[in-house]
Design goal:
By secondary structure, the protein is mainly beta. It folds into three domains: 46-95 and 280-313, Immunoglobulins (Immunoglobulin-like), CATH 2.60.40; 113-275, Sandwich (Jelly Rolls), CATH 2.60.120.260; 320-441, Elongation Factor Tu (Ef-tu), domain 3, CATH 2.40.30. It is built from two helices and 30 strands. The chain has helices at residues 197-201, 381-391, and strands spanning 46-52, 57-63, 71-75, 81-83, 97-99, 113-114, 120-125, 133-138, 143-149, 159-167, 173-181, 191-194, 208-214, 222-233, 238-247, 263-265, 274-276, 280-284, 292-298, 306-308, 312-313, 320-323, 332-334, 348-351, 360-363, 371-378, 397-400, 411-415, 419-421, 432-441.
Length: 452
């Protein structure tokens, strides 16, 4: 470089220097002079929101790999952000997994290697409910059909191996074998699992999910090979393989890859390992009706770790809902009888002054939130009891009404004495009206804690 002072020559070494052009911009710790730039995989999360007008809720699905907690926030049309009750935080139920299969979903035969029996490899189309493709290994003569499966499994932990497997005819046996190397590259004793007779039967003429657990030997650093060998097949016998799952955990073998919800590929889509974040679900029963909003999931351990949904609208379809803070995912449908008269009180003092015609007034700087009275119709004793149960512990409840009711995006109501009125109906009628005086209050942190 211009102005650079060259170091003194190394004894016995060349005095020539070669300058190279840096490709891209990296932190110095990621750009070694003696090796290639390591692969850097951004570990991203996501969130999906699905309005459900039938239940008055928004169903949320969110994920983020390698995090101990997530926070979900709803942003309304006014830009106000509100924590979603029950999802702030939400704790992942399981750990993040890595599927170490590098061609898990049979996008091609890449990485598969024929073994004993010299099977011919091809792709077939699955005709079952799973669909997609599978890798087929076909032997010409009767005997063993062995295939090496592409993977990049490390050692050190117990492994769950799962695969959809199908035999054209019943083999006499089937073995899944993992060969291991230590940190120096020396071979260790392979570990193998023989499928039981019942497991084999489940894969004859149909795809059956085979799940086995394998413990690597002490000192295992990497898995050298993963082989499947079916013995005793007839001539033209076939073994079909698909949806590989290789994880360092004890699981039920449920399939996942970078295209699954919560998954991402670490390299080429379909031909690399994949990170599988645990998928969390939540139900928001406090979303305002008939207005646009969106949801954001945060990974609080990360700077800038968040993802948002597109804008969604939860349609009211003319209905209103009441939500209790102890059960935010199960709002109750309600029928307000009439638009309430709203009173906005103010704390105010009027003081007469000796010798003056007009008194002076001292007022608070703001009026209180509205108060009034609402009447809810109940068409049956069951509806009445549901509403009374909702009001029973004295907690504030959230009333969400259609936008054209003019009651805003939702009102938290502290209810006073609830009066049950038959309204002059016949004795045999189950219809009732519940008259509820209320005061609009702030959103509570939770249900009423003063419960006997």
């Amino acid at each position: 470089m211009p102005g650079q002072v060259l170091p003194p020559p190394i004894p016995g070494a060349t005095t020539s220097y070669i300058a190279g052009v840096q490709q891209g911009t990296y932190p110095w710790s990621y750009l070694g002079w003696s090796g290639a730039t390591p692969a850097i995989v951004a570990q991203l999360g996501g969130i999906q929101a699905t309005p459900d007008p039938v239940t008055g809720t928004v169903r949320l699905v969110c994920w983020w790999p390698y995090t101990s907690a997530l926070q979900v926030v709803r942003t309304g049309p006014d830009g106000v952000r509100t924590a979603v009750r029950g999802a702030y935080p939400i704790t992942p139920s399981t750990a993040t997994l890595v599927n170490y299969a590098t061609n898990p979903n049979s996008v091609s035969t890449a990485g598969y290697v024929p073994g004993t029996g010299s099977p011919t490899l091809s792709l077939i189309t699955r005709t079952d409910s799973v669909g997609g493709q599978a890798v087929r290994a076909t032997i010409a003569s009767s005997g063993t059909c062995e295939v090496t499966v592409p993977q990049s499994l490390p050692g050190g932990q117990q492994v769950t191996v799962a695969v959809d497997m199908q035999f054209s005819a019943r083999p006499s046996g089937c073995t899944i074998t993992l060969a291991w190397n230590d940190s120096t590259g020396a071979a260790l004793t392979p570990t193998a699992v023989n499928l039981s007779a019942n497991a084999i039967n489940a894969s004859v003429g149909q795809f059956g999910r085979q799940v086995v657990q394998i413990t690597p030997p002490t000192g295992a650093a990497t898995c050298a090979t993963l082989k499947v060998a079916a013995t005793g097949l007839p001539a033209s016998g076939k073994v079909d393989l698909d949806r590989w799952m290789l994880v360092q955990a004890l699981t039920d073998g449920t399939y996942g890859d970078g295209d699954s919800t919560g998954g991402q590929w670490t390299g080429t889509a379909g031909l690399s390992t994949s990170i599988l974040a645990p998928v969390q679900t939540a139900v928001d029963g406090e979303c305002p009706l008939d207005v646009a909003c969106y949801y954001t999931v945060y990974a609080p351990q990360l700077t800038g770790g968040y993802a948002s949904t597109p804008t969604i609208t939860l349609a009211s379809n003319g209905g209103a809902w009441l939500t209790h803070p102890a059960s935010p995912s199960t709002p109750v449908a309600c029928r307000p009888y009439a638009t309430p008269t709203l009173t906005r009180k103010i704390s105010q003092g009027v003081f007469a002054v000796l010798g003056r015609n007009n008194p002076v007034v001292v007022s608070a700087s703001t009026r209180l939130a509205p108060s009034g009275s609402l009447t809810f119709d109940a068409a049956s004793f069951s509806e009445r009891d549901t509403l009374l149960g909702l009001f029973g512990d004295g907690s504030a409840v959230l009333l969400r009404a259609p936008a054209d009711f003019g009651l805003g995006q939702g009102m938290w109501l502290a209810l006073g004495d609830v009066t049950e009125e038959p309204g002059g109906r016949p004795a045999w009628s189950q219809s009732r009206s519940l008259v509820c005086p209320f005061q609009v209050v702030d959103s509570p942190a939770g249900a009423n804690s003063l419960i006997a």
